[in-house]
Amino acid sequence: MRFLSVNADCFLIELASLDETLALYSKLQDTQIKGIKDLIPAAKTILVFFNEIETSFYHLMPLIRSLEAGTSLVRSVQEVIIPIRYDGEDLEQVAELQGLSVADLILKHSQSTWNVAFIGFAPGFAYMSSPDQPFTDIPRLKVPRKKIPAGSLGLAGQYSGIYPKDSPGGWQLIGTTSKKMWDLERENPALLLPGMNVHFEDVTRHPVSVNVPKQIVAVEEKRSSPVFKITAPGLQMLIQDEGRFNQTNIGVGTAGAMDKSSMHIANRIVGNPADTAAIEVLNGGLKAQIQSPAVIAVAGALSKIHVKFVDGQQADYESYQAIALDEGDEFQVLTPTAGLRNYLAVRGGLDVKPVLKSCSFDTLALLGPKPLSIGDVVYHGQLNVSDISLHEVAKTDLPKVGDTVELDIVMGPRTDWFDQQSIEVLCQQSWLVTNESNRVGLRLAGETSLVRKMTQELESEGTCIGALQVPPSGQPVLFMNDHPLTGGYPVIASVAKHHWDVVAQIPAGCHIRFKKIKEFEDIGQGL
């Protein structure tokens, strides 16, 4: 059992096998050690998140070692039967790789028992392993497909997996199912959960049933009064709050406001609780007409708010102040002069329906209230409000295009997968933030690529916000709020938590320099 540093509030436990990993994960769930907030199990690792106020890495480590989980695991008695039509486009190729006929491949796959090991990649995507070990390792495609249809059954390594939605992917496809892996209308959206037993039923020769769509009866929603209607869009307008917590067991990440401190400030300015959902606006541009009296505030990136009053008068307001508007008034959040993301708060909050206990939209998982667009109407919330805060201060250190931003990093968990020169290059050279950056992550480009000294494939393992994952190109990707829960490329370091809000405000065209504030820690077995 190894303990590897990740960030101030999380660390990675590495174990010798999947069985050991699942046994320890089960033990940690049953024991419920004080201070542990969340766990992300993967093939041979568990990513542990903890409350820094209640505990620490050095306090938790001996407690976890003492559990002596071994490899024994009492699995859930719950079994799921999934009908499969073995008609995948890689079926013959996989059979040839295994030295089997197509018929024998189907027989071995359908007659094996499969266990849900962990959830990752996407909400509801279950990594299923078999104690029968019916196949040798199956390689991923050299060139991943850009789109794999929902319900496709794929194989990779020793795992089977069913894609819960249309998405890119590199697994070898051997079949399809009509079962929904992910359905928000179910009490448990994910059909498969860690610990379940799965059996695949071969229905290839059965008649194809035609699903008749249910007649949908429109139900009129009772809404509060409208606050404004969007008349011109920004590049991206998303409703965000603190984020989605404790949903990793079904493959759902945190999402939430990229720059939480700015969201908090905007809410305090209008008298809302700091964690109230607000609108995250990318690079300004949002224009709206007020439908009923409202008090708004814009924080985050430095932008002026242009107001055209119903009587024809016009004015430009600075951000970081409350603006009272009446019916018929129009306002527009202008392009920022510094920073990238604005946060627009409305006094009383927004009338938004939570999804999995959060009003945040996750751009990777496509969960939450849909992104706002031209013509959409935003409605008043019903929150209890307090006095407007008059003492909020605008951020003065926001980056502009061309600036170089210094970010603190914690080394690990896979620093030792890189040669010493690359570890030094990470902090010695500046990294350009490219245009291929979004809420999933910032794609960086440096003159010198990072080089791995360990070239074997890394089995999927949990990742955190701020992770610097290094794909084969050697050019890092800085994971942000909507990143996938697990990844198959090594993470050399992670941006420290106190700089996440800064990352949210870095526009493409800036450069980043990394400053090491904590060395890589690898505390191995028996230490």
UniProtKB/TrEMBL annotation:
Keywords: ATP-binding, Hydrolase, Nucleotide-binding. GO terms for molecular function: ATP binding; hydrolase activity. It holds the Pfam family CT_C_D. Residues 1-192, 249-527 form the Carboxyltransferase domain. The keyword Disulfide bond does not apply. Gene3D superfamilies: 3.30.1360.40, Cyclophilin-like (2.40.100.10). This is KipI antagonist.
